[in-house]
Predict the structure.
Amino acid sequence: MLSVPPPTDPGLRPDYPIRTERLLLRPLALTDVEALLAYRSRPDVCRYVPFEPMDRQVITRRLANHWANTTLTDEGQSLTLGVELAGTGELVGDVILFWHSRLHRGGEIGYVLNPDYAGHGYATEAAKTMLRLGFEDLGLHRIVARIDERNDASARVARRLGMRQEARLVHNEFFKGEWSTELDFAMLAEEWQVRRTEGIDEVASARPRSAERGRAETVT
């Protein structure tokens, strides 16, 4: 297996916007309130996530704190970026990268997509970029995604990214009034190096769950 050494000065300080084939990933701003409200207020978007449908006040508050971070400088931090269509400037979703452990070089990704833009592979394209940031720029050794088993679209994205399903935790959490089963996916840095030049396509959405951490949230 390939050995990927950690960076001498761990930290993630991207130059924005981050360009992909069809997307721009960049920090969220107050001008995104309406676009965020369009999907984060929807019950179907919030079905497998730890929060209820958001109103304008909640979104504005998140923009001022949780989503205001633009760098990762230490463990315990997260970076949320908006997913913008390069051709039109429309915000179609958001993605997140957690830095869980400096010692173990562990992280987690999540993604959520406005259902109106599903079916084009935007979630996979954006999530692939977050894996690249985590492995190549931050120097992580292992990145995970945790997904509700009922969230088929999100699980398909994790598999298209080349993440391995490592566990199925049956009824491990009492979530929104019912027991939920969790699927755990993971990828190592050396696995990313093997797959990073491969084409990855298709669709879905997920985001880490408990209090915007752990478990993936999704849209079908």
In short: The two ends are 36 Å apart (CA to CA). The CA atoms of residues 162 and 195 lie 7 Å apart. Confidence is low (pLDDT under 50) at residues 201-207, 209-216. The domain at 18-195 is CATH 3.40.630.30 (Aminopeptidase).
